[in-house]
Amino acid sequence: MVYDVSERRVNKVLKIGRKYITWIQNSVLEGEILPSNFLKMKVEINKVINKNEDSVLFYILRDLKYTEKENIGIVKNSDDRFI
Fold it and tell me: How far is it, in rounded angstroms, from Cα 66 to Cα 13?
């Protein structure tokens, strides 16, 4: 999910997204999500944004087998988990 929303709403959109998927860097979140939770997230975001000013994009990858991620520079939020 990537978003470009008014400064007044940016924290609300981020908070909603982080309930369901992982924050990666400014205005970018990613993760696997159940269809039911995806719908819930979209409903919550729709209640917060102004559709005439804001933009939220969802990239839906059907098969992770063909997906690769490469980073240059610092990793703002690693998906590694430490115990």
Answer: 29
According to DSSP, residue 52 is labeled T
- The CA-CA-CA angle for residues 6, 54, 27, to 5°, reads 70
Question: What would the two tokens of residue 67 be?
Answer: 């997906």
**Token couple for 81:** 């988990």
Label residue 27 exposed, middle or buried (CB < 10 Å: 0-12, 13-18, 19+).
Answer: middle
Identify the band that residue 71 occupies on the pLDDT scale cut at 50, 70 and 90.
confident
Residues 3 and 56 sit within 8 Å (Cβ to Cβ): yes
Q: pLDDT tens for residues 6-54?
A: 999 999 999 999 999 999 999 999 999 999 999 999 999 999 999 999 9
CATH numbers and ranges of domains, the chain: 2-66 (3.30.70.240)
Structure tokens at 71: 């980073």
